[in-house]
């Protein structure tokens, strides 16, 4: 080990001295600007969209040292990784082949994809890659430069860096909604990745998932003033960095404002505000506003597809409650809440209620149960399935699908769009009262859980159908 280090040290030291000399030379001119280099190496891509031009200018300032730490927030599929994570380090290496780069992202598979794309681009751009180290996520130049791409949690001790890039360290809603995972990602950034270069330039490029994500913690910390933030929402808001009019799309050539408004309706305000507008907010009790549901109807139209979902609890006269929600999708794609039953029943009494309700609904209504994690949850689900012989029953495992609010987001989006209607019944006020209060800290969420489970069953696990003319009662 000592021989390897001593052999590589002169090369690294010389490269560092040369880099500093060139940076301090006022007469020095780069051979090629980033703006000229991009269309030369990737001529098939459009680098002149206004959001990419601003982004490129900020990256050039990062390299020049007028910006030391840069955060860039953009919606999904906006070119943020292609420009900042793939092309930018290769351009810098083409100018300074002794540069040492570390890229961190949510997983090693994505890290290898980034490394492979940058390595291919480097070869095409004329950057020489040393023969002894050419792996997709770990390659180097003869001048002592090195490119290393790692997933969150990977060891980077002993790997110094001049440029650190963090690209989407959180991969999913489930990870974003986990306080434990968010803390682990933040700790890895602070204690592992950012310690690799006390003078390294740092770039964080991501789509916001959560109001308490790692960048939110950085911007609340003691070094918040050290970061320049470029936040580019999908639809322009007041004070837009690009000078857009309020409501104007980020890149109309790729996604128009009208298309983005449809996404807002489909995903709901909570998801759209974070992933698309880069304005994540805490969940509130306003996921299911009461005024979005009109007057109840007498009956659902013929042709409505139904599912009855059960959120089960087993404590009599206290604690959690069980709820069964019969939800349907009408032929015109409106969501119908047909019937709700709820109570605090002991396990045997609850099973009798479930079986009685199945007989009332008939076999035309699909039954769906949520299996809680662990052997107890599996056994409970299996017992209920055996009891319901002769009825169509599905069991969906709760673990690995995000928290209950994440699973309710698709149903909440339809509710917020005014696409949910209730069939008239003595349970209407009870159901509306509970969903109106749904949010962190709510005493009961069983009706929300059951309704979301039924909706996801009909939309995620059943083929859709073409709308037809409907007459509502």
Describe the structure in your own words.
The structure is a single chain. The protein is an alpha/beta fold and 473 residues long. It folds into 2 domains: 30-232, P-loop containing nucleotide triphosphate hydrolases (Rossmann fold); 290-460, Nucleotidyltransferase, domain 5 (2-Layer Sandwich). The protein is 40% helix and 16% strand. It is built from 15 helices and 14 strands. It has helices spanning 2-24, 34-41, 50-64, 80-95, 108-124, 173-176, 179-191, 214-220, 257-267, 269-276, 347-361, 374-387, 404-416, 428-436, 446-460, and strands at residues 69-73, 100-105, 134-135, 138-140, 146-151, 163-167, 201-206, 227-231, 305-311, 322-329, 335-343, 366-371, 393-397, 420-422. The strands form 2 sheets. Strands 3-4-5-2-6-7-1-8 form an 8-stranded mixed sheet. A 6-stranded mixed sheet has the order 13-12-9-10-11-14, with helices on both faces. The longest helix has 23 residues, at 2-24. It is elongated and about 80 Å long.
